Amino acid sequence: MTGKLRWRRVLVKLSGEALMGSQDFGIDPETVGRVAKEIAEAVSLGAQVGVVVGGGNIFRGVAIAAKGGNRVTGDHMGMLATVMNSLTLADALRRLGVPARVLSAVPVPSICETFTQRGAERYMEDGDVIVFAGGTGNPFFTTDSGAALRAAEMRCDAFLKGTSVDGVYSDDPKKVPDAERYDTLTPGEVLGRDLKVMDATAIALARDNAIPVIVFSIRTPGALVDVMNGSGRYTVIAD
């Protein structure tokens, strides 16, 4: 079955909001379960999967700075939010019989393992899903940048960014109904047109390591496996 896969080793980036479902805050167990089932299906097809989950459903570090607080403190709080989301997703995967490990860039040894590249490589080769928590472990970096970094370290074939829409648009399609949708873009076009798909650091990291970025809708049931098989709707960002 592995022959069906367009990309075998992937890094899947999910926003924290993707775990909220229809809620305004927090974690929706039903949504987490659906996402976990899609990851489990990809694993059953022979994929090696790493996942990075944001923390925006619980806390955003920039919210502290926006109100005059300390950005570093806010970002540390945001990193802890990603640990909570990662634990939730890993637990859902294990309940489906999929081995999953949370590796955090921020050491919290009583809760999960601390990230090392060698350890993560060994686990991934063994077939475990690795949920990377804590971003890069440093303030002032987004979880998109953390995901691009992990994709490079793990030598992934692709960086799959799950969003609320089915690709990259010239503007927010929820606000601008006639926004243009792109099937393919180069990193230079994303940066030059100031398309808000992810931050410039993440785009540059993926470009410099020749990792294609695939933008798809995580809210569409079955979309992740479709992308892995090279079908469905998505935008490819690559040179």
TrEMBL record:
Location within or outside the cell: Cytoplasm
GO molecular function: ATP binding; UMP kinase activity
GO cellular component: cytosol
Pathway: Pyrimidine metabolism; CTP biosynthesis via de novo pathway; UDP from UMP (UMPK route): step 1/1
Activity regulation info: Inhibited by UTP.
Binding site residues for UMP: G55, D75, T136, G137, N138, P139, F140, F141, T142, T143
The protein's enzyme class: transferase
Residue ranges of domain Aspartate/glutamate/uridylate kinase in the record: 9-217
Record has ATP-binding as a keyword: yes
Binding-site residues, ATP: K13, L14, S15, G16, G56, R60, T163, Y169, D172
Chief location of this protein within or outside the cell: cytoplasm
Example GO biological process: UDP biosynthetic process
NAD listed as a keyword: no
Entry EC number(s): 2.7.4.22
Top-level taxon in the UniProt lineage: Bacteria
Catalyzed chemical reaction(s): UMP + ATP = UDP + ADP
Alphabetically ordered keywords of this record: ATP-binding, Cytoplasm, Kinase, Nucleotide-binding, Pyrimidine biosynthesis, Transferase
PANTHER family attached to this UniProt entry: URIDYLATE KINASE (PTHR42833), URIDYLATE KINASE PUMPKIN, CHLOROPLASTIC (PTHR42833:SF4)
Record function comment: Catalyzes the reversible phosphorylation of UMP to UDP.
Membership in a protein family: Belongs to the UMP kinase family.
Subunit structure of this chain's protein: Homohexamer.
Name listed for the protein in its UniProt record: Uridylate kinase
Organism annotation: Stappia indica
Gene symbol of the encoding locus: pyrH
